[in-house]
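Practice problem 4.
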């Protein structure tokens, strides 16, 4: 089978089978799709003559009928035969918007996706191809124009190879398919176009819209001070005045900031005086300019008179005859022109003088009585303005005094309230102090009672420990007599020392192995307060027959301890008595 496309003219008279819109779309698809233009085979719709510049060079195997309708199309694996020229055109449904998918029915049973790809890729680039088992398929193209080229193949008879069996033959029915992807892409494209249109309209509206006035800042003390400064300068006076007017229209003025608004109004009023001084200055400058203009105009008129005299001197017979006709004509024209200009300048100068005279008469040619009256009226008006300004200042001061009085009243009320609160707090603290004193006295009484009980209990314990047998008591009495005889030269024993000796003796009797000086002092201070270890040590040293100090321990653990020696003698006496009784028995 030839690889080239054989275009055979069928019936050149039937030209009403297809609409011109389809032909145009097919042609546009051929131009847009470069894959079609690079091939040697073309599907040429009816009533379309191919452009020789678009055909591949060197391919002269085709013949084109100028009014041909449909031709036989040869492919590598199949052949397409056109329908009968007298057959009615194939029916199609309404084309959905954005349609890129076609339905292909009437396919042979033995057809494959490769054959369908080979047939329809001539119409345009294919994105998806879905083949069904029921002899139909759906083909989706990249461009919408490719759908028109595919619809052109509707009604063709297809034959796979050269086989005549029914399974290898069929009649193509190509129609528009309604696909969701096509509809979605079309809707997205429409939405994008709508967004672009709205954006263009909005940009056009913004371009045509009048610019909004600049925003006015809200009132504050800082802004008010800035505006009052700007009101004093000619450059920023107008803008600052507009801001003040806006604040007043908004109702930002109240009792608190009335003084600041009054100062701004006062500075605005002072600007009037500046304007009057500027006006007088400009009037002086205008007067000087008028005087200068008069002098210049008089000089110009004088020069015009000299020029006129020159032209008159040139018209004398002695001089005039020496000029040619053309020169005489030019001199006469110049003379007329200078006279016209002089007359025009004179009229203009006279009108200006009249206007100036009228202005002078209206300003300064009034009788002196009227002037004096006007001056007195001006003075009265000035005095009235000053009086009004002073009244406004007095009212402002009164308002300030009232505000200060109200503030002072509030401060005094707050201070009185604070003093009342402090008095109540002081009374509460006094009551708490009295209550704490009462509780302290009760606690002190309880402590004294506990101390008396403790002393009584301790005395009872001492008496229990010292109670001995009669023999022991006698021996103790003898020992005490001996001790008294030994210490006959010493001073008499006081009650405090006796009490202290008794307490220490009881404590050391409980501790037969002795105790340190600090331990003894801590025990004694529970009963007798404010005793120092040195006092206790001097007392025990004073009575060596009762107390004795020994070294107990080994090496570094050695320490000095006090031992009660009185009961040691009694124990030795007891042992001797026991031995004597045993011997007698």
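Answer key:
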């Amino acid at each position: 089978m030839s690889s080239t496309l054989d275009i055979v003219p069928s019936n050149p008279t039937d030209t009403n089978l297809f609409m011109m819109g389809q032909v145009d779309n097919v042609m546009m698809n051929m131009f847009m799709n470069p894959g079609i233009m690079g091939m040697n085979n073309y599907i040429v719709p009816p009533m379309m003559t191919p452009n020789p510049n678009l055909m591949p060079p060197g391919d002269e195997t085709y013949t084109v009928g100028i009014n041909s309708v449909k031709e036989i199309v040869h492919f590598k694996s199949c052949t397409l035969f056109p329908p009968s020229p007298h057959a009615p055109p194939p029916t199609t449904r309404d084309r959905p918007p954005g349609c890129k998918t076609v339905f292909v029915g009437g396919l042979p049973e033995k057809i494959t996706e490769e054959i369908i790809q080979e047939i329809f890729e001539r119409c345009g680039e294919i994105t998806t191809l879905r083949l069904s088992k029921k002899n139909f398929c759906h083909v989706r193209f990249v461009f919408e124009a490719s759908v028109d080229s595919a619809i052109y193949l509707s009604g063709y008879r297809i034959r796979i190879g050269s086989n005549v069996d029914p399974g290898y033959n069929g009649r193509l029915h190509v129609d528009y398919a309604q696909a969701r992807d096509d509809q979605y892409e079309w809707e997205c494209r429409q939405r994008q176009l709508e967004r672009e249109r709205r954006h263009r309209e909005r940009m056009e509206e913004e371009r045509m819209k009048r610019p909004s006035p600049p925003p006015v800042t809200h009132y504050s003390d800082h802004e008010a001070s800035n505006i009052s400064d700007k009101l004093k300068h000619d450059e920023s006076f107008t803008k600052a005045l507009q801001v003040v007017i806006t604040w007043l229209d908004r109702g930002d003025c109240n009792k608190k900031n009335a003084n600041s608004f009054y100062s701004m109004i006062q500075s605005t009023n002072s600007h009037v005086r500046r304007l009057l001084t500027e006006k007088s200055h400009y009037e002086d400058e205008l007067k000087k300019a008028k005087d200068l203009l008069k002098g210049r105009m008089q000089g110009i008129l004088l020069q015009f008179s000299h020029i006129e005299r020159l032209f008159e001197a040139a018209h004398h017979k002695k001089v005039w005859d020496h000029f040619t006709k053309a020169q005489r004509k030019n001199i006469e024209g110049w003379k007329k022109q200078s006279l016209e200009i002089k007359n025009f300048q004179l009229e203009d100068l006279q009108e200006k003088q009249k206007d100036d005279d009228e202005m002078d008469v209206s300003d300064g040619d009034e009788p002196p009585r009227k002037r004096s009256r006007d001056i007195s009226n001006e003075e009265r008006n000035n005095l009235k303005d000053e009086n009004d300004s002073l009244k406004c200042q007095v009212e402002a001061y009164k308002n300030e005094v009232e505000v200060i009085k109200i503030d002072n009243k509030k401060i005094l009320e707050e201070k009185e309230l604070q003093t009342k609160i402090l008095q109540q707090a002081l009374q509460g603290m006094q009551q708490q102090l009295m209550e704490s004193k009462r509780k302290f006295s009760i606690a002190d009484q309880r402590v004294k009672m506990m101390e008396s009980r403790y002393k009584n209990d301790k005395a009872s314990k001492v008496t229990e420990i010292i109670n001995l047998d009669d023999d022991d008591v006698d021996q103790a009495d003898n020992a005490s007599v001996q001790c008294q005889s030994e210490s006959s030269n010493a001073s008499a024993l006081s009650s405090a020392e006796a009490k202290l000796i008794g307490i220490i003796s009881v404590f050391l009797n409980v501790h037969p192995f002795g105790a340190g000086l600090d331990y003894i002092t801590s025990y004694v201070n529970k009963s007798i307060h404010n005793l120092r270890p040195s006092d206790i040590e001097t007392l025990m040293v004073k009575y060596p027959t009762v107390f004795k100090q020994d070294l107990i321990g080994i090496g570094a653990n050695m320490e000095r301890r006090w031992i009660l020696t009185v009961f040691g003698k009694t124990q030795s006496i007891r042992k001797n008595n026991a031995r004597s009784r045993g011997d007698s028995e």
